[in-house]
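User: Some background: our group keeps a shared notebook of sequences we're curious about, and every so often someone picks one and asks for a predicted structure to add to the entry. Today it's my turn. The entry only has the sequence so far, pasted here. Could you supply the structure so I can complete it?
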Amino acid sequence: MPELNSIIMFLTASTLLAFAPGPDNIFVLSQSIAYGRRAGYRITLGLCTGLLFHTSVVAFGIAAIFQTSLIAFNLLKYAGVVYLLYLAFLTFRHAGDKVEIAKGENENRINLYRRGIIMNITNPKVSIFFMAFLPQFASPAKGSITLQIIFLGFLFIIVTLLVFGLISFLAGSIGKALGGSSRFDKWLNIFAGTVLASLAVKLAFTER
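Assistant: Of course. Here's the predicted structure to add to the notebook entry:
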């Protein structure tokens, strides 16, 4: 296990990174405003499940493939672009509908959770970031590097759950306070769709 000082530094850095504007927390923010805090919580759980994938990828050395193989990197990247554009299309198509996605149907819960997983997994930059970030806080003198990476990955996930949960709560409260009319719901959907489309464009132009 890493030293206590390293863990404290890691938690501090992870918290700052979780709050820094990025595709994941912007996604949680926009969806929470548009569809409520519960939607944000479910998407956060999905995103953090995706982080389990990236932690495993780094711990067992597979992330190097995304860094060295342009084909593998682009395949995963463009899969994410297509998925984000698909979500944007669905959101724009239902822009005139009353927002009900966060009302509690089981299907919507699963869809929101799955949405977070797919969005996170199809961003190869996360694996490359983890490959650069996590090993800095691991030491061969403290035991298995693989186990230390897994431990640090779980700490990062816990921090992300807390920070994104707070973002979901605050953004959902804002959306609830401002919502109520069908016209406002329409603009919320347009806002959410625009964010999704923007994230797709940003991901499309991402380089290794």
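Suggested note for the entry: The CA atoms of residues 90 and 97 lie 11 Å apart. The chain has a mean pLDDT of 80.
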